[in-house]
Each structure stands twice: as structure tokens, then as C-alpha cells.
Amino acid sequence: MSTSEFGNVSWVYFVAGAYVLVVVVLLGLAVNSLGRYRRARQALNDEGFSDDKS
After folding, report:
1. What is the pLDDT, as a whole number, of residue 26?
2. Rounded to an integer, what distance in angstroms lies between the CA atom of residue 18 and that of residue 20?
3. What is the sign, positive or negative, of the torsion defined by CA atoms of 24, 26, 28, 30?
């Protein structure tokens, strides 16, 4: 394990890894939600529903 004058610092890697994992999961959820929104909007437009004010 890595040690320094502050003692065992493996917890730093654990915490940093946890933050990285959370960020990756949240980005994945955001991208997935955006894709689902775009597909739903396109499907509504294909069926004749539109939010255009014409």
C-alpha cells in the first residue's frame, strides 16, 4: 500500500475512484435521458404533434 508521512493514503484512491464512478454514472444517465427525450420528441413530430406555433 502507498504510505506517506500522513500514513496510509489508499483511502484517497478509494474516494477519488468513488467520485469518478459517480460522475461517469451521472453522465451516462444524462446522455441516456437526452437520447430518450429526442426520440420521444421525434416520434411526436412524426405523428403530427408539434409545439411549433404556426
Report:
1. 98
2. 5
3. negative
| Residue written as grid cell 461517469 | 24
Partnered with residue 4 across adjacent β-strands are 7
pLDDT in tens, 1-54: 566 666 787 888 999 999 999 999 999 999 999 999 999 999 999 998 876 655
Cite the beta strand spans of the chain per DSSP E.
3-4, 7-8
Q: Cell numbers at residue 12, please?
A: 484517497
State the first-to-last Cα distance of the chain, in angstroms, to the nearest integer. 67
Domain ranges of the chain: 5-46
